[in-house]
Amino acid sequence: MSVDAQDSPDTGELARTPEQIPEGQHGFWTGRSGLVVAGILAAIGAYLVVGIVIMDVPEGAKVPGPTFFPILIAIAVFVLAALLAVQTLRKPEPVPATEGNARFHTDWKSLGLVFGSFLAFALLLVPVGWLISAALLFWGVSRALGSRRPLFDVGLALVFSSCIQLAFGAGLGLNLPGGILEGIYG
Asked: In the predicted model, is pLDDT for residue 102 greater than 70?
């Protein structure tokens, strides 16, 4: 019996570790999880295209028009999705040589915090405004990524969302939702 082989508790047979499986016996999806991300990017690109097609463009809109930048972003998303898919198909990730039955895990707490922060941002954007909802989003993401300095994170999130508000307002002439602070800075 090989030193690396282990008895499988379920069947009593020998379980093979990834490095013991011959190269040709790995499934197609082994090392190609990047195709899922490429698919998600392509779906986002398709969603952007649908939004561009159904966008109401005023007749007096000047060239390049309000669809110019969304078209550029949609093209970039499709190009990135295609490049990621080609790279993943050409060079799949190598099978890790792990000892025993090591498993990867998903940090559901962090994922839930990012998702909850984004959902709160989407729901609170109009009623409370950009400044507060964006600061909440930035704070939630920083907590999910492991920051343990809540007061510093809140301050930095407020500064960051304020800078974006100024860039959109002063630099681009666009107004982000003011919400409850509408009369103060809107």
From this structure: no
Helical ranges in 10-102 per DSSP H: 34-53, 68-90
Helix (H) or strand (E) holding 141, with range, is: helix 130-144
Q: Are strands 14-15 and 6-7 parallel, antiparallel or unpaired?
A: antiparallel
Helix axes 34-53 and 68-90, enclosed angle (nearest 10)? 160
Average pLDDT over residues 100-110: 70
Q: What is the pTM of this model?
A: 0.51
Instruction: Print burial letters for 22-59: b (CB count within 10 Å at least 16), e (below 16).
Output: eeeeeeeeeebebbeebeebbebbeebbeebeeeeeee
Q: What are phi and psi of 7, to 5 degrees?
A: -70, 130
Question: Taking 60 as the threshold, does the pLDDT of residue 100 lie above it?
Answer: no
Asked if 178 contacts 129 with a C-beta cutoff of 8 angstroms, the reply is yes
Q: Is a pLDDT exceeding 80 seen at residue 42? A: yes
